[in-house]
């Protein structure tokens, strides 16, 4: 099967696995050895600054939240960012967007984010940035992983739908609406499913 790197995996409306119900996953790697990605639409309750204090003694003032990236190695920290000058030799996941896991690089990325935040505390701009995760970085605890041929099999049984990922999917669109918006982009019958509330009983 063709590599799905750089694609969005959109959980099909019938997918019942609690780890992936109504999720949108960015595929960062996909080859004969398996696949790896991060869930884009599950923001957590922990600020990156608080998480950072557990892995480094350096200060961190970036007011963004950490996302739940998937059920694999939930203590592992990975991140997406758009600072190409920090990784000039790296291959992007999609044009202009890079994946990292190194603490030193994350420190530099968070430093850039903190420098770009407005002065003062508890401002509306800061709250908006914290809610989204930041316009240039998204930090994840854990990731989604598949063994050799596993994702291919799930695709064949209709577990996932796909769309090319766009930077706005990763950094701009509201996470709580990403699954619905992705289905709407697919069009056709999926437009109907895009209108489904998280709990159909509330409709």
Write a structural description:
The structure is a single chain. With 203 residues, the protein is of the alpha+beta class. It has one domain: 3-Layer(aba) Sandwich (VC0467-like). The chain is built from seven helices and nine strands, in the order E-E-E-E-H-E-E-E-H-H-E-H-E-H-H-H. Strands 1, 2, 3, 4, 5, 6, 7, 8 and 9 form a nine-stranded mixed sheet that branches. The longest helix is centred in the middle third of the chain and has 14 residues, at 103-116. The chain is globular. The model is unreliable at 121-133 (pLDDT under 50).
Shape: globular
Give the CATH level 1 class: Alpha Beta
Task: Give the domain tally.
Answer: 1
- Describe the main β-sheet briefly: 9 strands, mixed
Q: How much β-strand is present in the residues?
A: 25-35%
Which properties best describe this structure?
alpha+beta; 9 strands; 7 helices; globular; VC0467-like; nine-stranded mixed sheet; 203 residues
Would you summarize the structure shown here?
The chain has about 200 residues and is α+β, with helices and mostly antiparallel strands. The protein contains 7 helices and 9 strands; from the N terminus they run E-E-E-E-H-E-E-E-H-H-E-H-E-H-H-H. A hairpin with a 2-residue loop joins strand 2 (about 25-30) and strand 3 (about 35-40).
């Amino acid at each position: 099967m063709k590599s799905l790197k750089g694609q969005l995996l959109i959980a099909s409306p019938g997918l019942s696995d609690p780890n992936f119900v109504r999720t949108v996953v960015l595929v960062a790697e996909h080859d004969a050895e398996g696949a790896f990605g991060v869930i884009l639409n599950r923001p957590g309750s922990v600020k990156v600054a608080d998480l950072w204090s557990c892995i480094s003694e350096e200060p961190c003032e970036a007011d963004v939240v950490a996302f739940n990236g998937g059920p694999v190695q939930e203590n592992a920290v990975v991140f997406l960012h758009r600072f190409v000058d920090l990784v000039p030799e790296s291959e992007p996941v999609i044009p202009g967007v890079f994946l990292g896991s190194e603490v030193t690089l994350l420190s530099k990325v968070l430093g850039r984010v903190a420098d770009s935040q407005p002065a003062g505390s508890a401002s509306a701009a800061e709250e908006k940035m914290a809610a989204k995760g930041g316009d240039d970085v998204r930090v994840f605890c854990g990731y989604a992983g598949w063994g050799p041929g596993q994702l291919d099999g799930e695709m064949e049984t209709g577990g996932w739908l796909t769309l090319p990922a766009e930077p706005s999917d990763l950094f701009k669109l509201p996470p709580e609406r990403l699954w619905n918006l992705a289905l709407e982009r697919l069009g056709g019958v999926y437009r109907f499913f895009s209108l489904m509330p998280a709990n159909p009983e509330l409709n």
